[in-house]
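If your schedule permits, I should be very grateful for your opinion on a structural question. I have a record of one protein: its chain in single-letter code and its fold written as discrete structure tokens. Kindly check, if you would, that the fold set down in the tokens agrees with what the sequence suggests. I remain grateful for any guidance, and I place the record below:

***
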Amino acid sequence: MALAFDEYGRPFIIIKEQEQKTRLRGLDAQKANISAGRSVARILRTSLGPKGMDKMLSSPDGDVTITNDGATILEQMDVDNQIAKLMVELSRSQDYEIGDGTTGVVVMAGSLLEQAEKLLERGIHPIRIAEGYELASRIAVEHLERIAHKFEFGENNIESLVQTCMTTLSSKIVNRCKRKLAEISVKAVLAVADLERKDVNLDLIKVDGKVGGKLEDTELIYGIVVDKDMSHPQMPKQIQDANIAILTCPFEPPKPKTKHKVDIDTVEKFETLRKQEQQYFDDMVQKCKDVGATLVICQWGFDDEANHLLMHRNLPAVRWVGGVELELIAIATGGRIVPRFQELTAEKLGKAGLVREKSFGTTKDRMLYIEHCANSRAVTIFIRGGQYIFGFCHSFVYHSSQPY
């Protein structure tokens, strides 16, 4: 294909082998479009239902995903045809609005297109076919409203929601332990839901996980999970009613802004310098103790001397916590991030009902659980299992929001 200009300067396109190119019109164009939509539906048809097969998808960079979720399959497919792209948008809209039925809606659309092709061959106009489908949709919705049953549920009566959630997980990879995962999903949604308004803020549900262990080890945490542990192995692993000091200042003596050089030529000078440095550490730890902090979470690290002093002063500490996690902890616990020790006050401490360190797996990985936070209803679903589970874990929790 090349671009040329006529004698008036108007551009036109020269297509190579133009005599072999054809433009479809009328019924042939409609059949070509229908064929593209049916091809997408045919790909997803084999993954529908409890006996549906999973699809193995390989991305250009070599990542492999195993799933039978329609939205995930279509999202990772390389689709060029414009009608096929509409089927992808249909699945994406279904996933955004409902959270389930992404495969079924594409298969149904493909079947409707297949029947529409037969009607087109009989000479029926496409607008008449579309009007017939809209009329059938209204009749189907009215019939569903007549035969529908209303199930009452509440915080202490979740069985109907669990059963509904289990039906959405029956064809998924996690089918073997769908009862437990359905209960976790429902409890997570109810923890963040406004039952009076029937509104669910799914952003308050964080899905996190670590490869390893069994899928049955998945648990629901009413709080935040941080991939850190206590800075000293002898610090307490569990703190009740924690007052958390959230710091972005390091436990170390201040460094001069200019270039400096210190000459130490006697033992007395070295002892004086060591005592001065120790006094800095002691003042920092004492400041945290004076405001009532029972846990220190620091963005930066601190050396062994500060760590040893924190342990002996019975002040548990966590170091090298990232800025994003630090902000999340501050929001959840109602605390303030403190940039300097001089600004630390009791009013800026965060509150949490329970902070505990948990180890799991054969490698004894350790993570910090911050639960029953004072200022947040956020929950975390912590998933364990093999690598293939994590291609699916971020979608199953949203299926349980369908009853709302």
